[in-house]
Amino acid sequence: MSIPYKSISYAFLTIVFIIISGTQNLKAATADTLLDKKLKALGIIKISGITPPANDILLDMEGNKVRLSDFKGKIVFLNFWATWCPPCVYEMPDMEKLHQTLGNKDFIVVAINLRESSKKVAKFLQKHNLSFKVLLDQKSKLGRTFGIRTIPTTFVLDKNGNLIGKASGVRDWDGKESTDLFKYLIKNY
What we know:
This protein is an alpha+beta fold and 189 residues long. The chain is built from five helices and eight strands, in the order αββββαβαβαββα.
């Protein structure tokens, strides 16, 4: 008895599809494991499947209206802070170095100041020579939406605006582990 040619072709294609699908699932699982390790090394809690509000309007330092959705297509380092917060002030130089190293069309550092005047924030930025994007949340509306309880608190968003992780407290944002994490995210997320 001979097996029809079409049956062999169909069986072959089915096997190839299963192999390719399995390989893709393995790659995705490996990528997730690698991301988990990179996040854990920095003490960042992994968050996935959550899209934060992207259309709340904040003002930048020039008085322009800005939404988080304006950063779609970039990995977003989103830091909530205040000028009176010593840990916030401590990590700002590292954030500036990260901005200088990776800030481009694929990555942006955005610092959201909570409840302070634009004049006070502008003076602080000038004093500390900071050039990354700063937004003003003068009524802490976005801060409440993100559930900010302590500062500094940093969120990492993927290029679609979905949350990847959250870090409460100070981090070494200029270290090798941090730079490696964001380079990895730029390439893969």
